[in-house]
Amino acid sequence: MRRGIFGGTFDPPHVGHVAAARAAVAALALDRVLFVPAGLPPQKHGHAPAEDRYRMTALAIAGEPTFEVSRIELDRPGPSYTVDTLRALAGADALFFICGADAIRDLTTWHEWEELPRLAHFVGVTRPGVDRPQVPYATYVPMDGVDVSSTEIRARVAAGLPIDGMVTPAVATYIHEHRLYLG
Ligand code: ATP
């Protein structure tokens, strides 16, 4: 099995995340993609609680039969280091860790980063406004840029602006019903 792993804060999950996972599936013939919301993001401050980010991720990928969401980083105490997640998932499957060009650029700041390319193939997707750093530990797959970020969505919600088209309708409803990101 060829398995994609897509780690992120997903605060909230948006259409750029789903597009990135679809691009990786198409380019690399992946059988499944596991979305892994960080329980305690080591380098970011989680705005919404981890359980809400997990539930929103499940809503964002509902109806995509090859996508699933994992609780692995919610159920493991301490900072959610990717190296620990990849070690836990190592087994018979070939693992492909999907990330945006910004994450590829910053990978050398991640905990035990030298181990990461030994545990999974690192797959980059382009992200508008970010160069594609050419690094020995990652390859890129083609993707039409989707210019959206969780930061922008949180700011729009706090300002009372619509977020249609940036997240799925189910995620938008969840954000509003749980009064997330109001600042
Ligand atoms: P924030 O704005 O809060 O920093 P984000 O939009 O970057 O969040 P994350 O959950 O931190 O979202 O991202 C998880 C992974 O998805 C990262 O590897 C990131 O590079 C990638 N990613 C996020 N948005 C896009 C996008 N629009 N296009 C391509 N990759 C993306």
Structure described in brief:
With 183 residues, the chain is of the alpha/beta class. It has 8 helices and 6 strands, in the order βαβαβααβααββαα. The chain has one domain: Rossmann fold, CATH 3.40.50.
Total of DSSP H or I helical runs spanning 4+ residues: 8
What composes the largest sheet? Answer: 6 strands, parallel
Give the SSE string: EHEHEHHEHHEEHH
* Overall CATH architecture: 3-Layer(aba) Sandwich
Overall outline: globular
Share of residues in helices: 25-40%
CATH class (first level) name: Alpha Beta
Radius of gyration: 16 Å
| Overall tally of structural domains | 1
Q: What small-molecule ligands were found?
A: adenosine-5'-triphosphate
The CATH homologous superfamily name equals HUPs
Estimated structural class: alpha/beta
Strand order of the largest sheet: 3-2-1-4-5-6
Which whole number gives the mean pLDDT? Answer: 96
Low confidence ranges: none
The CATH topology name reads Rossmann fold
Q: How many β-strand runs?
A: 6
- Note the gap between the termini: 43 Å
Provide the β-strand percentage band.
Answer: 15-25%
SSE topology:
Blueprint: E1 2-8, H1 15-28, E2 32-37, H2 50-60, E3 67-69, H3 72-75, H4 82-89, E4 94-100, H5 101-106, H6 116-119, E5 121-125, E6 138-140, H7 150-158, H8 169-177
Parallel strand pairs: 1-2, 1-4, 2-3, 4-5, 5-6
Helix pairs in contact: 2-8
The site of adenosine-5'-triphosphate (ATP) has 18 residues, from helix 1, strand 4, helix 5 and helix 7.
